[in-house]
Design brief:
By secondary structure, the chain is mainly α. The protein contains two helices and no strands. The chain has one domain. The N and C termini lie far apart (132 Å).
């Protein structure tokens, strides 16, 4: 038996115009209006959230600027302290050398 060499087309029934005319578009419009209202509410909340985020970022920028100034001042004071410690260390070594010389002469 010979096999068919092409595709078999199955016709789908067409929708009648009577069915399209019987659909009431009002419920769809109501759902669309509710969806748009909800979208507007969500966008308003989003705007409020973005404004809050921007305010928080501004506060963070101010805080980090203050922190930077404080750390720079702290670094300067540490540098001054290190310089003082080096000076005291040099004086201590000089005093130690002098004391060693005095002890060596007294023996």
């Amino acid at each position: 038996m010979a096999e068919p060499s092409g595709a078999v087309v199955i016709p789908f029934p067409r929708r009648g115009q009577n069915r399209a005319a019987s659909v009431d578009p009002a419920p769809g419009r109501d759902r669309m209006a509710r969806a748009l209202d909800l979208l507007e509410e969500a966008l308003a909340e989003q705007r409020t959230a973005v404004a809050g985020l921007q305010a928080a970022l501004a506060d963070l920028a101010t805080s980090t600027a203050r922190l930077d100034r404080g750390l720079c001042g702290f670094s300067t004071r540490l540098d001054d302290l290190a310089q003082g410690v080096r000076g005291i260390g040099a004086k201590a070594r000089a005093l130690e050398t002098w004391a060693d010389g005095v002890l060596a002469r007294s023996r």
